[in-house]
Design a protein that fits this description.
The protein is an alpha+beta fold. The protein has a domain of about 45 residues. It has a three-stranded antiparallel β-sheet with strand order 1-2-3. Strand 1 and strand 2 form a beta hairpin.
């Protein structure tokens, strides 16, 4: 049986924490930044934990 390959797109987008949760970058920080307030940009710039519903699928893509 061959090994499961890691999904290249997923490994660039997600990081596993020490406790096994998955961190991701929030969307909305690529363009139109002059329209958004500083407070909103600071909030969007922080990492966020992935929801429990998506965790199983993402771990599978990461080969965990």
């Amino acid at each position: 049986m061959p090994k499961q390959k890691t999904h290249s797109g997923a490994k660039k987008r997600f990081k596993l924490t020490g406790s096994g949760k998955i961190k991701k970058q929030q969307s909305g920080m690529r363009h139109n930044l002059e329209v958004k307030s500083g407070q909103r940009k600071r909030r969007l710039n922080t990492d966020q934990l992935v929801s429990k519903a998506d965790t199983k699928n993402i771990k599978k893509l990461l080969g965990r």
